[in-house]
Design goal:
globular, alpha/beta, 181 residues
Length: 181
């Protein structure tokens, strides 16, 4: 995907067209999972042990809950369409393009599910960070570390902290924080 994007930029440059650069913002958010296989499935029913016919104990949680941020197969069932959707999302460089993509997905696939909304919010964070010249947005232990020109941006000589407990709400809080700079 990166190769195709760079190739398109090179062709546009050779044609003399003005080229907007790709978003080069690294997002590292410990409270988000971008893999469907890592998302906590909602059990349809409690599993039953064969030995006693009683419900099996629930597995121990694998850590704090994380916000799912991906295009689920239940939202876009066709793999080529899902890959194309990811490609289009990766090519977004303006808020207008993101709004149009969101509208297209809503028209084509129905209302955006929570994992899709979270994925769109992550893209909004990248857009906002890029507009403010941040190169990295990282959240670890509720601490928000924003980098610009290889320096961390601090608020009152401290890293800002997220206060929300719900992972999806943390994403929205992070977006508001990045936009506040």
């Amino acid at each position: 995907d990166l190769y195709c994007s760079l190739l398109r930029q090179a062709v546009s440059t050779l044609k003399g067209e003005k080229v907007k650069p790709r978003l080069e913002v690294a997002l590292r958010l410990e409270f988000v999972t971008t893999r469907e296989s890592e998302a906590a499935p909602e059990p349809a029913h409690a599993p039953v042990t064969a030995r006693h016919g009683k419900p099996a104990p629930a597995p121990a949680p694998a850590g704090p809950p994380r916000a799912p941020a991906f295009l689920p197969a239940s939202y876009i069932a066709d793999s080529p369409s899902r890959i194309q959707a990811y490609r289009r999302l990766n090519e977004v460089i303006t808020q207008e393009q993101l709004d149009q993509l969101r509208k297209t997905w809503r028209d084509r696939f129905g209302p955006l599910s929570p994992p899709v909304e979270n994925l769109v919010t992550m893209t909004e964070i990248k857009l906002s960070a890029a507009a403010r010249k941040f190169t990295s947005v990282e959240v670890k232990d509720e601490k928000v570390m924003l980098q610009r020109n290889n320096d961390y941006v601090l608020l009152g000589s401290k890293f800002p902290r997220l206060s929300a407990r719900d992972p999806a709400e943390k994403l929205r809080e992070l977006l508001a924080l990045v936009r506040s700079f």
